Amino acid sequence: MPGRRPFIAIAVLAVVLLAASAGSALEADWVYFASTAKGAHYYDAQSVKKTTVTLTVQEKTVYSEDGRRSAEKFLKGTGEYRGQKPDHVIAVSEFNCKAAKARSLSMTIYDADGKRIAVSPAGGSPWRDLAPGTLHERLARQVCP
Fold first, then answer.
1. Between 58 and which of 41, 44, 128, 140 could a Cys-Cys bridge form, CB atoms 3.0 to 4.6 Å apart?
2. d(CA 80, CA 1)
3. How far apart are CA 102 and CA 10, in angstroms?
4. Given its phi and psi angles, is residue 42 left (phi above 0), alpha (psi -120 to 50 degrees) or beta?
5. 28-143 has which CATH code?
6. Cα 130 from chain centre
7. Do the Cβ atoms of 87 and 63 come closer than 8 Å?
8. Three-class SS of residue 76?
9. Per residue in 19-54, pLDDT tens?
10. 75-131, pLDDT tens digit by residue?
11. pTM (two decimals)
């Protein structure tokens, strides 16, 4: 049996390494694309999904102090503020790249521990033109073919 111990240790190590690499493959690949008074803005390169007409992508805003205050004010307006400290928001946006239009499909606000604070209602926003200089226009330059 003494000869089997190194083999078992190597097998256990291999399983642990495989599990760790599988977990990291599922993690988001956040790519920075802009900064505003609201915070730093990123998109998840792994989340980009293309169809024949549209493209969807997850975007994340890590709040600045101004962004945090704005999120707290928003939460108070919806009646969902209970003293939480908003840290970031993850949204799903949809683009019609050929028509130069975009809309938000969903939005979830999280605290620093990753606990969900608020979720937007289902349905999303109406389509809007990609106005120059807006976050959606800047993001479209990154993800649209």
1. 44
2. 61
3. 51
4. beta
5. 2.40.128.710
6. 20
7. yes
8. helix
9. 333 333 458 999 999 999 999 999 999 999 999 999
10. 999 999 999 999 999 999 999 999 999 999 999 999 999 999 999 988 899 999 999
11. 0.79
